[in-house]
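Checklist before submission:
- one chain only
- standard amino acids only
- sequence pasted in full

Submission:
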Amino acid sequence: MSLYIGLMSGTSMDGVDGVLVDFADGVHVVTDAHAPMPPALGAELLALNSSGPDELQRAALAANALARLQAEVVAHLLDNAGIGPQAVRAVGSHGQTVRHRPGEFDGTGFTLQLNNGALLAESCGIDVVCDFRARDVAAGGQGAPLVPAFHRDVFAGPTPRAVLNIGGIANLTVLSNESAPTQLAGFDTGPGNALMDHWCKLHTDAAYDDDGRWAASGKVDGLLLVELLADAYFRKAPPKSTGRDLFNAGWLSQALARAGGTRPHADVQATLLELTARSAIDALRSAAPGTRELLVCGGGARNGALMARLAALWPGLSVAPTDSAGLPAQQVEAAAFAWLARQFCERRPGNHPAVTGAAGLRVLGALYPA
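Returned file contents:
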């Protein structure tokens, strides 16, 4: 069986993306579907990213609600394709990251994605593979990013190329050319949309800055940008990964306090956009100065102001959504988890030790049979 479903709910917490992928001849997305995150569930998932009362029960109930939302997406995919659950080999479900602390505490740390694979398997009648990150962390890795191996399968070509996924957090995959296919690097560069979305919601009540128009109306505040970029994470050598545990509303508030004074809200938004673009381009220049093409996926690929800034920061670098390479920007991450489900079912490694820092190649995931 060559049909797999991938489900992704990212750091932006705006909903569940799903794709039905046919791996019979390469990577072919048959159909896609999206279910927006119910506001109450989104707020609860965000709240669970920090300590609070009655976390165990709240996390369990949130995981159940997320599984039901995922099941709706699976049903839409099957209906769109005109097939039954028996035609699909497995569903790869990422779940929702609410804590990401690899390498901390006992030296192993943990990463936690809320999910209920048993409920999802029961609801959709298809084998479910989930909990992809835990095995990499157990092997001493970061558990993230996991998409670079998939990016290499889909986007590697003769031109030195990189892939930048801009979700809530941004992660970079550096691809070699075809003459050196084993070379691969990848890591989280820092904030993607998460801080911009937070600031936009706080001051405009909109969920996000459509096409970056609000940011474009403001001016980059140099003093604030210096404070933001001063965080040690940006100077840390890979392998590295991050999340809302670091780059959150409190982190931004502290930087604003250190910068002092007051500034127009639009200027802060412009500065946050600059932070996302600058940290990504600086990381790419350092890791792969010979890069000629940057393919962008995730929600950030739809932010025209952000895409323009990425291009302006590196004159001569071709910057384009992954659509130009055959896979729409909004489908890439969900397709990656369909790919990871296939890797699990075929007992093939899903991680890349050079990216995550794990002790070696590992088969990732846990199975919940239908």
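Reviewer check: The radius of gyration is 20 Å.
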